[in-house]
Design goal:
The structure holds two protein chains of two kinds.
Chain A lengths: L8 H43 L7 H19 L4
Chain B lengths: L5 H5 L12 H31 L5 E5 L8 E5 L6 E6 L5 E5 L10 E3 L4 E4 L4 E4 L5 E3 L8 E7 L2 E8 L1
Antiparallel strand pairs in B: 1-10, 2-3, 3-4, 4-9, 5-6, 6-7, 7-8, 9-10
Classes of the chains: A mainly alpha, B alpha+beta.
């Protein structure tokens, strides 16, 4: 008894696996981006609080961490192909 | 040609009119949001640094004899809209604080006899000698206005948060 080749064959399976891998990376990138934007949202609320009379010492560190988050977001976008 | 299904009559949206957002475009928009958040943070930090670099102007607040012991006076410092309150604690001691409660911004009312400044909105209490929070929801002390005595005059010369 001989096995009947499936339509598309092994190469079709490879393409499907590559596609699935691509989507996994894309979803991972999107998850990281959402987390980074969430962190930046918290930093922005700290900055607003500091500006409106709260602890002003946190303003510059918050801006620096926000810049790092922004740079990380920019780098992550390169993986979202 | 067969008739189109009923749902096409109810929802007549053509594919070319449908604005699909790809996952990559969505990720790009997240990066723009990230950039905007950074811009906001940087703007707040820059404005605070600039404000700190410029010394506040000195402004006459009151004459020494103007207030009895236990009396209070409201004045504006450093800008016209920044209400502050001056309190005379004894013959030689004057203190001044920003009048805006650090909770939600209601004006605080001095109660020198009880040694407090009271926020009537949510019953926040501050100590009149140093502006520290005694009770209630305020998260921070009141900003203290630095005073200088020049002869028989009291001058506001700065604000310390």
């Amino acid at each position: 008894m001989t096995a009947t080749p499936r339509p598309g064959g092994p190469s079709s399976d490879d393409a499907r696996a590559r596609e699935a891998g691509r989507f996994t990376v894309l979803y991972a990138v999107m998850t990281c981006l959402v987390l980074l934007v969430g962190v930046q949202w918290i930093l922005l609320s700290i900055a607003i609080d500091g500006f409106l009379g709260g602890p002003r010492d946190l303003l510059v560190p918050a801006a620096v961490v926000s810049a790092l988050c922004c740079a990380a977001s920019w780098r992550l976008l390169r993986f979202a192909r | 040609m067969p008739d189109p299904p009923a749902w096409k009559h109810d929802f007549p949206v053509a594919w070319e009119d449908d604005h699909l957002v790809t996952r990559r475009a969505f990720a790009q928009s997240l990066v723009w949001v990230s950039g905007a958040a950074f811009a906001g943070n940087a703007a707040f930090a820059a404005r605070a640094s600039l404000a700190r670099a410029q010394p506040l102007p000195a402004r006459k607040v009151a004459d020494v004899d103007e207030l009895p012991v236990g009396g209070a006076k409201v004045f504006a410092y450093p800008e016209e809209g920044d209400a502050c309150v001056l309190v005379r604690l004894d013959a030689d001691t004057f203190v001044a604080f920003g009048q805006r409660c650090t909770h939600l911004g209601c004006p605080v009312v001095p109660e020198p006899a009880q040694g407090t400044l009271q926020c009537p909105c949510h019953e926040g209490l501050f100590r009149v000698t140093d502006g520290r929070v005694l009770s209630g929801p305020p998260p921070r002390p009141l900003p203290r206005v630095e005073l200088a005595r020049r002869g028989q005059e009291l001058w506001a010369v700065g604000v310390r948060s």
